[in-house]
Amino acid sequence: MATLLKELRLERGISQRQLAEHAGVNASVVHRAERGEDAKLSTWGKLFVGLGYRLLIDATELAEEAGDLLAEERDRRLERRSVGLCAGKRRFY
């Protein structure tokens, strides 16, 4: 997104300071974002709005990844529980 932000800003012919004013952020925020150093979603939203765009996020992939992580964690817990029971240890969760 950092590269896209910079390309769009340059296409508009505005400086980092001008984008910062449009977005309501400090110029250093624009500089860091264009270098890929700012990961806050709210900041990206402000910057793209400052360029006249809307930032739309498709959370489908994020939800799938979260579901996979939860399933992996569940499997690890079940494995630990079964190993503990086989070793004669009692654990209550």
Describe it.
Helices cover 69% and strands 0% of the residues. With 93 residues, it is mainly alpha-helical. It folds into two domains: 2-50, 434 Repressor (Amino-terminal Domain) (Orthogonal Bundle), CATH 1.10.260; 58-88. The longest helix is centred in the last third of the chain and has 27 residues, at 60-86. The two termini are 43 Å apart. The model has no long low-confidence stretch (mean pLDDT 87).
Name the features.
93 residues; mainly alpha; 434 Repressor (Amino-terminal Domain); 0% strand
Please mark out the parts with pLDDT under 50 across 5 or more consecutive residues, or reply none.
none
End-to-end gap: 43 Å
What value does the Rg take, in angstroms? 22 Å
Task: Based on Cα principal axes, name the global outline.
Answer: elongated
Total domain count: 2
What is the average of the pLDDT values? Answer: 87
Task: Figure out the total of helices.
Answer: 5
Biggest pleated-sheet summary: none
Secondary structural class: mainly alpha
Helical amount among residues, as a percent range?
55-70%
Please give the CATH architecture of the largest domain. Answer: Orthogonal Bundle
Order of helices and strands: HHHHH
Strand content: under 5%
Task: Tell me the quaternary state.
Answer: single chain
CATH classification class of the largest domain = Mainly Alpha
Q: How many β-strand stretches?
A: 0
Structure described in brief:
The chain is mainly α and 93 residues long.
Task: Produce the secondary structure layout.
Layout lengths: L1 H11 L3 H8 L3 H8 L6 H10 L9 H27 L7
Helix pairs in contact: 2-3, 2-4
